[in-house]
Amino acid sequence: xxxxxxxxxxxxxxxxxxxxxxxxxxxxxxxxxxxxxxxxxxxxxxxxxxxxxxxxxxxxxxxxxxxxxxxxxxxxxxxxxxxxxxxxxxxxxxxxxxxxxxxxxxxxxxxxxxxxxxxxxxxxxxxxxxxxxxxxxxxxxxxxxxxxxxxxxxxxxxxxxxxxxxxxxxxxxxxxxxxxxxxxxxxxxxxxxxxxxxxxxxxxxxxxxxxxxxxxxxxxxxxxxxxxxxxxxxxxxxxxxxxxxxxxxxxxxxxxxxxxxxxxxxxxxxxxxxxxxxxxxxxxxxxxxxxxxxxxxxxxxxxxxxxxxxxxxx
Length: 314
Hints:
Elements: H1 3-10, E1 17-21, H2 24-40, E2 45-49, H3 51-61, E3 69-72, H4 73-76, H5 83-93, E4 100-104, H6 116-129, E5 135-142, H7 148-157, E6 160-163, E7 166-169, H8 175-182, E8 193-198, H9 202-215, H10 220-240, E9 244-252, E10 255-262, H11 285-292, E11 295-301, E12 304-312
Parallel strand pairs: 1-5, 1-6, 2-3, 2-4, 4-5
Antiparallel strand pairs: 6-7, 8-9, 9-10, 10-12, 11-12
Helix pairs in contact: 2-3, 6-7, 6-8, 9-10, 10-11
């Protein structure tokens, strides 16, 4: 693995390579030396991957696995929007002053078409979130099972590519183009329950959302999460986006979907994806929405912003 050498050659401190693997042997050949190199240099190492991949790495590392932070990405990263604040930044920020190594696998076969835009958006945003940080984040991609379009997006979101044991710079690297494409309009289904709100109706819009979600079979625990999501999103609209907006709610498969649309525009692509500072007052609303939701989709532009939260009903 020559990731560290590439960082030194280019003078960069943050390195974000994509690793393309086609079987378990290639996966281990691309990840385990990366981990061992970090451990030998006394660098903190974390692996965030789906459970089957964690099991492979753990078995190969043997006793050395106890020195690695292991995270089941299918749980911690179910909502791609919380991976940066609660997985990647949480680990890197806990180890300042040294180079940090992380393996992060946010895209795997089985991710749905609804989830995927948020996944590739996450990969594009990593580059800005860690700019100037002494961190290496290696992102494995299952080149045998993932569609060609997903692999092409990996070329666009990662400046360094590793395949077959060889490393090269990506000639398709363009994360801004990917972010623009992922900022797609979100159109609610016909028949969604709708409630226009303003400052005077904030309690009413929350009660409306809870009643509609309850009718659609949402559990009590998830109703509590929904109440917080609705409160944060609608309050943000009132305070920061023209004084009000429209809430829509519907059921989709086994999830309840809550959407808030207002006239505001989000100019910060990392809004809600930074960990809150201990001394921070306010500004935690969208972060909380990401942490509570199973998926968050967002569209913002000159005509306003739409934020959509997906919550499992049970």
